[in-house]
Every structure is written in structure tokens, then in C-alpha cells.
Amino acid sequence: MTDLEGIQDLSREGFKSLLHQAADIILDLYDDVGAKKVYRSQSQEEVHALFAEDLPDTGTQIEGLLQTLQKDIIPNVALHYSPHFYAWVTSSATQASILGEMLASALNVNATTWLNAPAASELEQRVIRWIVEFIGYDPEANGVLVSGGSLSNFTALRVAIAQKCPYHYAQVGFDKNRALRIYASEQAHFCIERAIGSLGLGMENLVKIRVDKHFRIDLQHLREHIEMDLSEGRIPLAVVGNAGTVNTGAVDPINELSAVCKAYGLWLHLDAA
Hints:
CATH architecture of the largest domain: 3-Layer(aba) Sandwich
Number of helices: 11
CATH superfamily of the largest domain: Type I PLP-dependent aspartate aminotransferase-like (Major domain)
Strand order of the largest sheet: 2-1-3-4
Largest sheet: 4 strands, parallel
CATH topology of the largest domain: Aspartate Aminotransferase, domain 2
Mean pLDDT: 91
CATH class of the largest domain: Alpha Beta
Radius of gyration: 24 Å
Number of domains: 3
Structural class: alpha/beta
Number of strands: 4
Distance between the termini: 50 Å
């Protein structure tokens, strides 16, 4: 018995065969991808019927799952990797990223601490240092790699609260009599509102600022809302600026937005699609 056979449910050769089958499926996906239909016309009812099965009593062999993948799943996905996919902001997968995803799954690293994942921890810090250098941040700037845009916005707003909230909210909770206010344009991504709700700020404390004819945040309208909140005892906390919106690609006037935030002592967070 090999080490692999001792910890897994497949022999080395069996696993190798399945890897080759999966690789062939991936290669077939990208063959003549530009000539394939980006979106199939199956109805929701038709797709639902493909997977409307009862809870199984036994498992399914992987070969059977690969067949299901080819027969039912692949024909019913939008081809996000097609050169003709123009919806939303989904990027096409690269061959390098496909290999990286496979190897990352095999390593199954849990990067919770340096001792648990020495190489992964060092790689994360090195990538962050490169990003800091590339953008031109202060050399002392730091960060963390997260799974995607929604979690990054959530994390950034959590940091904003930690830096700018004038009381120990983590111990006493948020003071509804001194509401913390977040400002964002009407073009801000919906995950900003979700993050504010999940953080417990109350979604009514997300102040939507109108935009100009180019879909950029209206700075005068922003100042008016900040002044109004200050006069009524609320606490202006942060502004979410757009460095490329999902809907239009609009970029807010970042330098001017930064000046407003500095004038009022607000945290500036930038979101980019």
C-alpha cells in the first residue's frame, strides 16, 4: 500500500486516470471557445428538472459525476471564459490560474497562522508588499488577501469602524443615539449595503449620494449630507469612493474626494470593479 492509498479512497493510478479525464474535459471547454454559444436557452424549469432528485442512499462514483458534469452541467452554464462574454465584470480564467486552483486544492492550505502555513503566509505578505509598492502607498501600509470583492469591502469597512469610531463599540455595541454614517454614491455596488447591514451599523446609516451626468459622486451633495449629520449629532465615519463602477465604469474624482475626507476627518475607502 502506498502512502496515497493509505489516506485516500483511490489508488495512485486510479486518481491519475481521473485527473487525465478532468484535464481532457477542461481542454475541450476551451477548444474553439470563440465559436461556442455564450448562453444556452434552457429554461429555469428545464435546468431545475435535471437536478431534481431525492437524497441518495449511496454515493456516486467519480466517473459518474464526470459524466453528469459533461451531460447536464457544462451545457447549462454561461461561458464566462468566452471572448464574447460581455456581461458583468467576470474575468476569464487563465491557464495559469486553472493550474494554480488545482494545486491549491491539492495542498489544502489553511493559512490561519505562520506555523500552520509558513510558505503561504510569506507569499501573502510578499504579494501585499508588491501591491503597496505598485500603488505607491506608505511603506508601512499593510493588508490581507481575501476571497473577493464583497469580503474585501466588508473587511475594509470593518477596519474603518475600528479606526474612526470614537467609542469602544466592540465592547458596548453601537450607540443608536450617535449613529455612524457611511457615504457612498448611488452607483456603489450592492455589497456595500450588505456589508453595512452585516456589520450592524444599520442600513439606514448608508447615505446614498447623488451622481453627476458622468455617474460620479456629487461632492457638494456629499458635503451637505456630512454637515447635516454633524448638526444633528450623528457621526460621519467613512466615504466609499468608486474607482470604476460595475454598471458604467465611472470613476469618482478621487483626489477631490480625498480632500473632503481629510477636511472632515473621514476614512476613505475605494471600491473598484
